[in-house]
Every structure is written in C-alpha cells, then in structure tokens.
Amino acid sequence: MQNKWWEKYKQNPTEKAYVIYYRGKPVGTLSTIYKRKEIELGRVMLGEKRYARRGVMSSAINKALSKFKNTRVYIKVLNNNHSAISFYKKNHFKIYKRNEKLTFMEKFI
User: Fold this and answer.
1) What residue spans define the domains of the chain?
2) Residue 89 DSSP label
3) Helix (H, G, I), strand (E, B) or coil at 49
4) Backbone phi, then psi, for 98, in 5-degree steps?
5) Handedness of CA 85, 31, 96, 56 (dihedral sign)
6) Is the pLDDT of residue 1 over 60?
7) Number of neighbours of residue 77 by Cβ within 10 angstroms
C-alpha cells in the first residue's frame, strides 16, 4: 500500500518532497506543494531532537523556497505544537488565523 502511495506521490508535479541531510545523515523531511501561485509548506519533520536548534531545518526550508519569488508561503500547525509555532515565527512566518485545532501561518517571499 505504501509503495502505491509513494509512486502516485512522485508523479504529482505540484508537490516536491525533500529528505534533509546533516553531515551526510538523513535527519528530517519537508515538502512544498504548489497551489495556485501559493506554496504550502508541509511534512516538516525533524527525526531526532539532537539535531534541533542547529539551523538544519531553517536552512532546508530556505533552500527549498529559494526558487520561488513573489509568492505567499503558508503552513498549518497543530495549536498544541508550541515549539513548531515558535520555530516558524523565528523563520518569519506570521499567524493569520486559528481554529479549534490549527494555527495557520504565512510569509511572503
């Protein structure tokens, strides 16, 4: 089942998945989803906490977004994920909406 999903996922020209490496070791993932002149940032995950606060994910996000210009980038974060919300604020995302489950953040590049 997962192989089927992955093959379909790879065929989607609007979504790009990235594996993030630090010193040759895979430590995280992220994806960009192109939607009508906007980019949704998603699947941002750091595998091991020992790699946190080293700039690895900030650098990866900046690199993934570097090919886009004059574009709105947004992400959805669970309300109780305070460390992620703080991380995105440090990376110039601003909160523009909240509901009972999610915090919606954006930045313009």
Assistant:
1) 2-108
2) H
3) helix
4) -140, 150
5) positive
6) no
7) 21
CA distance 82 to 54: 18
pTM of the shown model? 0.84
- 2-108, what's its fold? Aminopeptidase (3.40.630)
Taking only the tens place, the pLDDT of each residue in 26-72 is 999 999 988 888 999 988 988 878 878 888 999 999 999 998 888 99
- Taking the C-alpha atoms of residue 62 and residue 81, their distance in angstroms, rounded to an integer, is 21
**Per-chain mean pLDDT for the chain:** 89
Average pLDDT estimate for 6-24: 82
For tokens 């595998």, name the residue: 47
Element (H, E) at 53: none
At position 41, the amino acid (one-letter code) is L
- State both tokens at 66: 């570097």
Cβ pair 77, 105 in contact under 8 A: yes
